[in-house]
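Inverse folding, one chain.
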């Protein structure tokens, strides 16, 4: 069954200005804002401005400029929030098994404390 983009998902609504966000950074291709339920002292979401459901969709359909723009924005945000020195983690869940909650590609940037192991042993 083919997936289709839900234009009413929360991130699409943020991009349209229907829902406010605590903006950290914005570029031609990306928007970064603080997560409303932070899991670390610094928890920023970086999303593409285009309608992409997840990383699979994005890497299959986005232009080279959009891909570069999103990943450059992640690095810019890390430097802006001071996470580049001590370190940070980026994470993007893709699909049900990964527990992706919002069907719009989003990259979590976690920082501000020791992040321990990424995934526990199987």
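Residues assigned per position:
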């Amino acid at each position: 069954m083919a997936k289709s983009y839900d234009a009413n998902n929360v991130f699409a609504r943020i991009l349209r200005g229907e829902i406010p966000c605590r903006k950290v950074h914005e570029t031609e291709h990306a928007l970064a804002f603080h997560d409303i339920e932070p899991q670390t002292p610094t928890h920023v979401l970086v999303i593409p401005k285009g309608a992409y459901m997840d990383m699979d969709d994005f890497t299959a359909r986005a232009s080279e400029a959009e891909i570069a723009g999103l990943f450059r924005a992640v690095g810019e945000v890390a430097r802006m929030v001071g996470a580049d020195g001590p370190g940070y983690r980026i994470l993007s869940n893709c699909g049900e098994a990964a527990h992706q909650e919002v069907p719009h590609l989003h990259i979590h940037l976690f920082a501000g404390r020791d992040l321990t192991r990424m995934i526990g042993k199987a």
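The CA atoms of residues 93 and 100 lie 5 Å apart. The longest strand covers residues 42-48.
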